[in-house]
Amino acid sequence: MPLIDVLVIWVHLICASIWVGGSIFLGLILAPMLGSITSSMEERLSIMIRVGRRFNIVALPSLLVLVLTGLYNSRAYLAEPSMLVRTDYGIILLIKIIVVIGVLITYFIHIKLLGNDVEKKIKTENVYSLYVQSIRSKIIILGRITVIMSIVVLLLAAILRSGGYII
Ligand code: HEM
Questions:
Q1: Cys-Cys link to 110, which of 72, 86, 116, 142 (CB 3.0-4.6 A)?
Q2: Model's pTM, two decimal places?
Q3: Is residue 38 part of a domain?
C-alpha cells in the first residue's frame, strides 16, 4: 500500500478515535456523573453546554476530516458509482456513507437545539419549565442516536476491512 494511503488511514483512525471516543466519554462518563457533582439542574445543563462547546472545537474538524479521508479511501468506488451497488464491499460502503449522513444530520440538530437562545432560556426561565424540559429530552435523545450510529459506523468499517463479507 502506498505511504500516502497508510497516512490517510492513520488520520482517519485518529479522527474516528476523537469523534467516537469523545462522544462516548460525554454520554457514558460525564453526563451520568454530573448528578454527583452538583444537585442544581441549571448548573448541570450549563456544565454540559460548556463542555459540549469545547468538545465541538475538536470534534467538528475531526468529523470533517473523517468525511474527506473517507472519500479518499473510497475513491475507487466513487469513481465508478455502479460498484457501490454491484459489489459486497460497495454495498457496505454505501450503507456506511448513509449512516454517516445520519450522524451529521442528528449531530447538527443536536447542536442547533443547544444554541444561545436555549442557553438564555435556561438562565432566565425555570429549568423545570415545559419548554426547557422538552428541549432537554430532544437533545438527550439526539445525542444518544448520534453515539449509537457512530458505533454502527465502526462496525461497518470492520466489515469493510474484511472485504465486505461477514461470514
Ligand atoms: C463518523 C465517521 C467515520 C468513522 C467513525 C469511521 C471509522 C473508520 C474506521 C475505524 C476505519 C478502519 C480503518 C482501518 O483499520 O483500515 C475506517 C475505514 C474506512 N472508512 Fe471510515 N469512518 C467514518 C467515515 C467515513 C466516510 C464518510 C467514508 C466514505 C465516504 C469512509 C470510508 C472508509 C473506507 C473506504 C475505509 C477503508 C475500509 C477498508 O477497506 O479497510 N469512512 N473508517
A1: 142
A2: 0.91
A3: yes
